Amino acid sequence: MREFLNITKALADETRLRIILALRNRELCVCQIITFLGLAPSTVSEHLSMLTKAGLIEKRKSGKWAFYRLTSENGSHEIKVALSWVCKTLAEKRKIREDFSQLKKILGQSLDEICCEVKKKSEAGRS
After folding, report:
1. Alpha carbon of 88 to those of 20, 60, 78, 83, 85: distances in Å?
2. In this structure, what CATH number is given to the domain that contains residue 9?
């Protein structure tokens, strides 16, 4: 029951749903997700943390980058059903199609470029 409640809480937010759909069929660096959403790194971190705790996404570190992806086949039945339902239900919504278009542009940029830009904006926000 606890797993079900964590999953439903994690899915009860538009931003977290957008993250799930952005991760469909791909892995993204946290900087790409921050750029995609246009939110503060701390806000994105909270969303990613909630999705990770619910078991819906997984994190992988590689050098200076942190990558996220949807939970693999090792996820529970509840997680598989939830991810499938979200992707099937929302994939064709106008906002998600717009997100996909924006994401294609971001994927065309180098990770170094994107992460450098995120870092600059984050430092500028602190001063």
Report:
1. 12, 25, 15, 9, 5
2. 1.10.10.10
Interatomic CA distance for residues 86 and 62, integer angstroms? 28
pLDDT tens by residue, 37-64: 999 999 999 999 999 999 999 999 998 8
On whether residue 126 sits in a domain, the answer given is: no
Instruction: Say how far apart CA 66 and CA 77 lie, in whole Å.
Output: 26
CB 36 within 8 A of CB 106: yes
Number of domains in the chain: 1
Q: Is the dihedral of CA 36, 37, 38, 44 positive or negative?
A: negative
Check: pTM over 0.90? Answer yes or no: yes
Cross-strand pairs, 29: 67
Measured in whole angstroms, the distance separating CA 87 from the mean position of its chain's CA atoms is 13
